[in-house]
Amino acid sequence: MPIIRVALNVPLDTLFDYSITEVSNKDIGLRVLVPFGPKLMTGIIIAVTTETDVPPEKLKSAKCIFKETPPLPKTLLELFQFCSQYYHHPLGMVIMNGLPVKLRGNKAVKQKELKVPYQYSLTQTGKQIDPASIPARNTISHRLLALLKHSDSITLDQVKEISPSAPNRLNQWIQSAWVSASPVGIAATPPSLPPKLTAEQQLAVNTITAEMHQFNTWLLHGITGSGKTEVYLRLIEHTLSQGKQTLVLIPEISLTPQLEAVFRARFSTTHLVNLHSGRNDTERMTGWLQALQGEAKIILGTRLAIFTPLAKLGLIIVDEEQDGSFKQQDGLRYSARDIAIFRASQTNTPIILGSATPSLESYHNALTGRYRHLRLQTRANENATLPTITCIDTRTSKAPEGFSEPLISALQKCLDEKHQSLVFINRRGYAPILLCKSCAWTASCQRCTSRLVVHLRDKKLTCHHCGHTEKFPLACPQCGDQDIIPFGQGTQRIEDTLNKHFPEARILRIDRDSIRRKDAWQDILKAIQTQQVDILVGTQLLAKGHDFPNLALVGILNADASLYSIDFRASERLFSQLMQVSGRAGRANVPGHVLIQTEFPNHPLYYALQQHDYDALANLLLAERKAAGFPPFIYQALLRAEAHDMKIVLNFLTGAAEIANPVPGIELFDPVPAQITRLQGMERAHLLVQSTSRKLLQSFLTVWHAKLKQLPSRKIRWALDIDPIDF
Ligand code: ADP
Ligand code: ZN
Ligand code: ZN
User: Fold this and answer.
1) Looking at domain 3-111, what is its CATH homologous superfamily?
2) Which atom belonging to ligand 1 lies closest to the Cα atom of 549?
3) For an engineered disulfide with 509, which of 193, 495, 501, 712 has Cβ 3.0 to 4.6 Å away?
4) How many whole angstroms separate alpha carbon 454 and alpha carbon 432?
5) In sequence order, which residues have a C-beta less than 8 Å from that of residue 528 and are 6 or more positions away?
């Protein structure tokens, strides 16, 4: 009887053998339902064989192979293998992490689920309808026809926005079939006419296009507003013309609608799927299958989309490559950017890493020639200039309630001139601290090493690490005094203060609390673009990628805290964030100004920022990293462990260090508590291992990992984190 070797979603580094009556090599990569312990589980067939080490009486037989969806392609299985080895994570768990939820379960996929339409277009009947012949009260019909008059196709979401029942009720007029791509994939008359490229853009496009047939990692290093998107568009166009697919990874869900709109406008008849993490399970699966079959030509998504099977991959783009959200922080702790590079080399495809402030890792690779460096140093729109950036010294210009005098007058001037402004403060809530004035007690989370944040409007205290909330205490739990006050500034408090100062201004706060509602983002962006807002208050959510043409002023509050952080990546992140948020100003015809409130106006980071000099700061930070032996000059891995009791954690890590047996070239540090020592009631610590050789580190980890699994690990959770970005 044939045997199949199956990868299952269980924390064991092994494949599982099952007998099966009928199977062939073509079934490798298919989903299979098998008994595992008392239950049934779905796994992926990795190999077909005739031999097994499992004794015959113990060998179980597989229930059934699911054949409704195609097998995972060989290259995708190889990608999963690579991740499993590199991140030291069981193959079955790696695979299941990468599959759409619908394909992880024990159910067959229904035929109708495989055909969920994303786009609607007019039927022949629909095209011939004269809107004048429809009674005015049929507003739904009118709106639908009006919308389709201006675009060839619209999405299901758009149809449903007009009326949820429209797809069924108006099915003589609109059809739910895929709008298939024209042979070259590009519309004859694109609705958005491409601008003439700047000389720098043209050079970048030409250089990359000349080498589209082979793997290269291109660092597209362009200042904010330099028109990186247009470069992507031209390269996608080229890829489409060869009948190939482009995978575009972006860090934030909130950015996908904007980019999707840009792509759809340019490539209106191209089959695009958006696989971001906010899509529902069916949509994700459908898009995923269309990518697998090579039908979807542009695949847009957040981190997880890197595991999309792509039959005809021609180009990968990672926008804002420096962004930390490309790294998953639990389970399989992968970096989607790094896997993207592996994937590009695996398929001999070019990959573009785009950024205004590349990660020091990528910048270093560009300097040393491992990546190809392309720069865009001027803004694309010839009227747009880089903003002037100035520091306000808050040691002399005091900032009661968060605002210094010069910042208030600049905001006033902006209001008078009917321009928009943005106040950036990277801390949501009303105030970061609740303080007792008589005994200095502060409210802290019972489950985490962190303070509770004051959310005044809900009259609650919230832990931003574990989500725990509690009621506002009436008196200090320590001394009983009632004089407890919110201390410091958060977005809500800044919003209140601005309302007091500028009662006539329209102020909009944007942070994770204000965008909870579905579609909130779209509404916000629309309000900004249609000038319904005078002053924006927001966290780093606002900093990324958005184009606000009328924004003239950016005020930056409370950035100093990151200057002297113990996290060696804090400066890099702060600089990138401030560059990005500053880059929101002066993008069109309005000149931009950025004012930074700080007690350290002479700090090199602020100096480089004022000069718009990424290289100066990056080289300074690289020199520091080199001297201190930090990445990118060294490769790191963390053994993370947590338990209810710190003693257990440290015991485990000490044991782990004892069996490590590091060879020369491997540096093993002592166990130390994590920066947030207690999280959700768990005590956390870690052990750092590093080496100047990635290969050496990897082979050490393989041996060590096998031994770690032998250690007694009752009551403890542990994991390896390769290339960690937070401690
Ligand atoms: P980046 O992503 O590099 O910050 P964007 O791609 O958002 O910059 O482009 C900034 C602005 O410049 C956008 O409004 C875009 O439409 C415009 N733009 C891009 N390329 C050109 C060009 N060649 N000519 C004129 N405007 C351009
Ligand atoms: Zn007190
Ligand atoms: Zn907490």
Assistant:
1) PriA, 3(prime) DNA-binding domain (3.40.1440.60)
2) 14
3) 495
4) 6
5) 420, 508, 536, 548
Give the whole-angstrom CA distance, residue 373 versus residue 350: 13
Sequence-distant (6+) residues with CB within 8 A of 166 are 140, 144, 159, 160, 174
Q: Does residue 229 have its Cβ closer than 6 Å to ligand 1? A: yes
Ligand nearest to the CA of 231: 1
Span 105-127, average pLDDT: 74
And the tokens for 546? 């958005």
Q: Kindly list the distances between the CA atom of residue 477 and the CA atoms of 444, 461, 473, 482, in Å, as whole numbers in the listed order.
A: 12, 14, 8, 9
Q: Which ligand has an atom closest to residue 194 CA?
A: 1
CATH of 199-376, one of 3.40.50.2300, 3.40.50.620, 3.40.50.300, 3.40.50.10420: 3.40.50.300
Q: Which of 541, 562, 542 is nearest to 551 (CA)?
A: 542
Q: State whether the beta carbon of 230 lies less than 6 angstroms from ligand 1.
A: yes
Which pLDDT belongs to residue 170? 78
525: tokens are 């962006």
Sign for the pseudo-dihedral over CA of 200, 201, 205, 206: negative
| Whether pLDDT at 584 is above 90 | no
User: By the 8 A CB rule, do 248 and 232 touch?
Assistant: yes
Which tens digit of pLDDT belongs to each residue from 308-324?
999 999 999 999 999 99
Domain layout of the chain by residue ranges? 3-111, 118-178, 199-376, 388-431+488-623, 635-722
